[in-house]
Amino acid sequence: MSARVRVQSNHFNDICKRYGVMLSTGNDIPGYDIVEYCGIASGMSVRSTSTLGSVRANFKSIVGGELTSMTESMTSTRNQAVERLVSEARDMGANAVYAFRFDCNSDSDGWIEICCYGTAVYARPLAKHKGV
């Protein structure tokens, strides 16, 4: 994996900090109480692959190895979808999204779609319990 791809994979944390929205793949937000349900939030990004990129990818698949340009394109597409989801959740008044998921589709015409979705909520930290 190239350094460029590795740096982009940390992009989720940057997006969440910028919008003030937490993401959780679980069915809750650990350490938080959900006080308001805001709705289902989603984000999508669709990209087409160039003919030259497809030819290179086909050649690489014959000789083996990672398709670095495709990995970088998919990472960028995924990050854009996440940013759209987080922005939509924030616009709904949410500060968290739980049950966060991805869905990916492609077709023979060379386009790739990444969609992410989850339940947008407003959550507050749980009160700390003092001694028992």
Can you describe this structure?
The chain contains 4 helices and 4 strands; from the N terminus they run H-H-E-E-H-H-E-E. By secondary structure, it is an alpha+beta fold. Strands 1-3-4-2 form a 4-stranded mixed sheet. The longest helix is centred in the middle third of the chain and has 24 residues, at 68-91. The protein is elongated. The chain starts with a helix and ends in a 7-residue tail after the last strand.
Write the layout of secondary structure elements.
Layout: H1 3-9, H2 11-19, E1 22-23, E2 32-48, H3 51-63, H4 68-91, E3 96-106, E4 111-125
Question: Quick gist of this model?
Answer:
By secondary structure, the chain is of the alpha+beta class.
Which labels suit this protein?
132 residues, alpha+beta, four-stranded mixed sheet, 4 helices, 4 strands, elongated
Strand content: 25-35%
Quaternary structure = single chain
Largest sheet: 4 strands, mixed
Mean pLDDT: 82
- Which regions have little confidence, pLDDT < 50, spanning 5+ residues? 1-8
> Secondary-structure element order, as H and E?
HHEEHHEE
Q: Helical stretch count?
A: 4
Distance between the termini: 49 Å
State the strand order across the main sheet. 1-3-4-2
Shape: elongated
Give the structural class.
alpha+beta
Helical content stands at 40-55%
Q: How many strand units? A: 4
Cα gyration radius (Å): 18 Å
